[in-house]
Write a structure and sequence with these properties.
The complex is a heterodimer of chains A (272) and B (301).
Chain A: H1 2-12, E1 15-26, E2 29-41, E3 46-50, H2 57-65, E4 72-77, E5 80-81, E6 89-92, H3 104-115, H4 121-134, H5 150-163, E7 168-172, H6 180-197, E8 200-205, H7 208-214, E9 217-221, E10 229-234, H8 243-246, H9 250-266
Parallel strand pairs in A: 3-8, 3-9, 6-7, 7-8
Antiparallel strand pairs in A: 1-2, 1-4, 4-5, 9-10
Chain B: H1 10-22, H2 30-34, H3 40-75, H4 82-94, H5 107-138, H6 140-153, H7 162-169, H8 172-197, H9 201-209, H10 214-252, H11 257-267, H12 270-297
Helix pairs in contact in B: 1-3, 4-12, 5-6, 5-8, 5-10, 5-11, 7-8, 8-10, 10-11, 10-12, 11-12
The chains are: A alpha/beta (272), B mainly alpha (301).
Chain lengths: 272, 301
């Protein structure tokens, strides 16, 4: 009985941010990026963090990834405090960050061989092949990053992250550098992949449509410095979602305008 | 991309064809000819463009050098002109590997002996300098520790190290190699260290997220990403080493291109000194070009 309660507790607060503050020491003095962030993310949930540029949304992601340490406060993942980066929290970087001297296969393999080091060579290779097949890149396995398009690079980045079978997938503006058409295709594919893997995901974005389309919840952040969570919006649209059907869905449009209103009315960024 | 003239009138083409016929069409490099629309008449204008852009300017430069040299040689008494130098070179290179005792050997032996010294000094410098550069770039403490030493010793003229070498090794040849070593090591240390500190933070973040071990970080991330910087260091080093060898050999003696220059000065065979200048320049150029090719091979994106 007690165990059951504990498990449920785990599922509900899979990723937990408790009173997180983040201050950076810069040449101009101390800069308070984040103030008092509290957030709980459930297992299997897709959460987007949206806000104007410079509001510290990437900082939140880097904190969960363990690439940054909070000035004060605590972060937990699956009940354990986050102390350093690890393969249980895979990151898809905005600029793909593939190693240019390795092929797509080798880039993914680098992640697999570390996480599944007890497995045989064949098992590892199969994992790489599966991950690349999942993002539809079986044909480009032996190509180097400079030989493929931006969209394909980002797919390899996603494959590398997913191949680690992470507890949480962290996406840092994953489609920000892509053109609108490629972005839409990859968003659709990401939706399908999330459907298959039931992975917990946190995505940083500045694209309102992307946030509403993909998320279960949207965390809207106020402007920095001393940024915080302004509002959290539940996206109760049924899954699987289809972007064409949603375009005429009143709920979708309502959610969309909610986010827009938050960003452009209540927390409009002053013209720089 | 090469701009292609869309319309070339027939008169123009005829004129260009005539011009091309007159100048023995130089071969079109493959890279250029493939990037060009393959209309038969326009290939002539391409040929002409290749000639005027790539072959003519360096040819004019070299001819000017010869002209100035001829002019000066006519004015001064001791300086031989290009023609007599060329004749002396033919004699010299007809038997490059003769040996008439320790101080009179063919130009081939002289070059090879110099190259051997440079190779030895340079390799030792690379063996010490590159790992040292890696560690300096990787560890802040080491960087701060070595910074004053490097800043102090690096500007010292290479030949100032020669007496120290002679004192320590008690022989001329190791002393010359020591001078090469000490002058070639700095660019490799510094460029490698800069390369390590310039490794994109993104790649290091990948390493952290994937939780890679130190050995994997070095082989899969640091080394490939530092390689272009390192090769720049190697290129600068070999340039310096080749610069210094002539001066070092003048002082230490033995078989070598530098000592040969000095020897021919004592014999007053000025043609040979000029030939040596060209040989030193040519070998330096070849070393440099070889390393540039190597660097291109290992540069990504």
């Amino acid at each position: 009985m007690e165990k059951h309660v504990q498990e449920r507790h785990m599922q509900e607060r899979y990723v937990q941010l408790e009173n997180v503050n983040m201050r950076f020491v810069t040449k101009k003095g101390v800069f308070e990026a984040l103030k008092n962030i509290n957030l709980n993310i459930n297992q299997g949930e897709f959460v987007s963090i949206i806000g104007h540029s410079g509001c510290g949304k990437s900082t939140v992601l880097n904190l969960i990834a363990g690439l940054l340490e909070p000035t004060s406060g605590h972060l937990f993942c699956a009940g354990r405090e986050i102390a350093k980066p690890g393969p249980d929290r895979a990151v898809v970087f905005q600029n793909h960050s593939l190693l240019p001297w390795l092929t797509c296969f080798e880039n993914v393999h680098l992640a697999v061989e570390r996480v599944f080091k007890h497995e045989t060579q064949v098992q590892q290779d199969l994992r790489v092949i599966d991950a690349l097949a999942l993002v539809g890149l079986s044909h480009a396995m032996d190509k180097r990053p400079h030989e493929i398009s931006g969209g394909m690079k980002q797919r390899v980045g996603i494959a590398r992250a997913l191949a680690m079978e992470p507890k949480v997938l962290l996406l840092d503006e994953p489609f920000g550098a892509l053109d609108a058409l490629t972005r839409a295709t990859l968003q659709d594919e990401l939706m399908k992949i999330m459907e298959k893997t039931h992975c917990t995901a946190v995505m940083v974005t500045h694209d309102v449509d992307e946030a509403v389309l993909l998320s279960d919840r949207i965390v809207m952040m106020t402007n920095g410095p001393s940024a915080g969570i302004g509002e959290i919006l539940d996206v109760n649209l049924p899954k699987p979602r289809n972007r064409l059907e949603l375009a005429e869905n009143p709920d979708y449009n309502h959610l969309r305008s909610e986010v827009l209103r938050f960003l452009y009315e209540r927390h409009a960024k002053k013209a720089a | 991309m090469i701009m292609q003239k869309p319309e070339t009138s027939k008169v123009d083409m005829k004129a260009e064809k005539a011009a091309n016929d007159a100048i023995e069409q130089p071969p079109i490099p493959a890279a250029l000819s493939t990037g060009v629309v393959t209309k038969t008449p326009s290939q002539f204008s391409t040929t002409a463009r290749v000639f005027f852009q790539w072959l003519l300017p360096p040819a004019i430069g070299l001819l000017l050098l010869l002209a100035v040299w001829t002019l000066i040689s006519h004015q001064s008494q001791g300086l031989p002109g290009p023609l007599s130098t060329f004749k002396a070179a033919i004699v010299l290179f007809s038997d490059p590997f003769y040996v008439n005792g320790p101080n009179d050997q063919g130009i081939g032996w002289n070059i090879l002996n110099s190259l051997q010294r440079v190779g030895l000094g340079f390799s030792m410098a690379a063996l010490v300098g590159i790992p040292l550069g890696f560690m300096i770039g990787r560890f802040e403490f080491l960087s701060r520790m070595t910074a004053p030493v490097i800043s102090l010793l690096r500007p010292v003229s290479p030949l100032a190290w020669l007496p120290i070498g002679l004192l320590v090794f008690k022989a001329a040849n190791p002393a010359a190699i020591w001078v090469i070593f000490i002058s070639a090591i700095w660019p490799m240390i510094i460029n490698t260290a800069v390369g390590v500190s310039k490794v994109p933070q993104d790649y290091m973040n990948v390493a952290k997220v994937l939780n890679l071990g130190e050995w994997k970080i070095v082989t899969k991330i640091l080394f490939p990403s530092v390689l272009p910087y390192m090769l720049t260091g190697v290129r600068l080093s070999i340039g310096v080493a080749w610069l210094v060898i002539v001066a070092a050999e003048m002082l230490t003696g033995g078989v070598g291109i530098g000592f040969w220059v000095w020897d021919e000065w004592n014999n007053l065979v000025v043609e040979h000194i000029i030939i040596a200048i060209f040989v030193v320049g040519l070998v330096g150029l070849l070393l440099e070009q070889g390393l540039i090719l190597l660097a291109k091979r290992f540069t990504y994106e």
